[in-house]
């Protein structure tokens, strides 16, 4: 019977790794009312932590506009006005391109990606 106990740590180790890394999360926050501040966080343990980090990065008068997991998020903003367009897609390029296209479709000029992140 003692022989079986030697293998127990080997069996439990993968479970511990899955418990710590399986629930990655990201969040994007923007200034409330269409301001120019924004913050993004990814690869964090859970949604609550991701939202807290995004709000901290964004600054005052911000709110979370989206959460994401195992995808990428991008925010495109126009050159001379506040606000922006958000896209969440499977890949970085797709998220960035979709956000810029949405910005341009609304008649904004000089649309560019302000920030982006991918959650593992």
Characterise the protein shown here:
The protein is α+β, with helices and mostly antiparallel strands and 120 residues long. It has one domain (21-118). 37% of the residues lie in helices and 32% in strands. The chain contains four helices and six strands, in the order ααββαβββαβ. It has helices spanning 2-5, 8-21, 47-58, 92-105, and strands at residues 25-31, 38-44, 62-68, 72-77, 85-89, 112-118. The strands form two sheets. It has a three-stranded antiparallel sheet with strand order 2-1-3. The protein has a three-stranded antiparallel sheet with strand order 5-4-6. Strand 1 and strand 2 form a beta hairpin. The longest helix is centred in the N-terminal third of the chain and has 14 residues, at 8-21. 28% of the residues are buried. Mean pLDDT is 81; it is low at 1-22.
Question: Summarize this, please?
Answer:
The protein has 120 residues and is an alpha+beta fold. The protein has helices at residues 2-5, 8-21, 47-58, 92-105, and strands at 25-31, 38-44, 62-68, 72-77, 85-89, 112-118.
Features:
three-stranded antiparallel β-sheet, alpha+beta, disordered N terminus, 4 helices, flat, 120 residues
Query: What's the helix count?
Result: 4
| N/C terminus separation | 41 Å
Uncertain regions: pLDDT < 50 for 5+ in a row? Answer: 1-22
Read across the widest sheet, the strand sequence of neighbours is 2-1-3
Let me know the largest β-sheet.
Answer: 3 strands, antiparallel
- Strand fraction equals 25-35%
Count of discrete structural domains: 1
The percentage helix is 25-40%
Radius of gyration computed on alpha carbons: 19 Å
SSE arrangement, N to C: HHEEHEEEHE
* Number of E strands: 6
Per the principal axes of the C-alpha atoms, what is the gross shape? flat
Overall mean confidence score, pLDDT: 81
Task: Quickly give the structural class.
Answer: alpha+beta
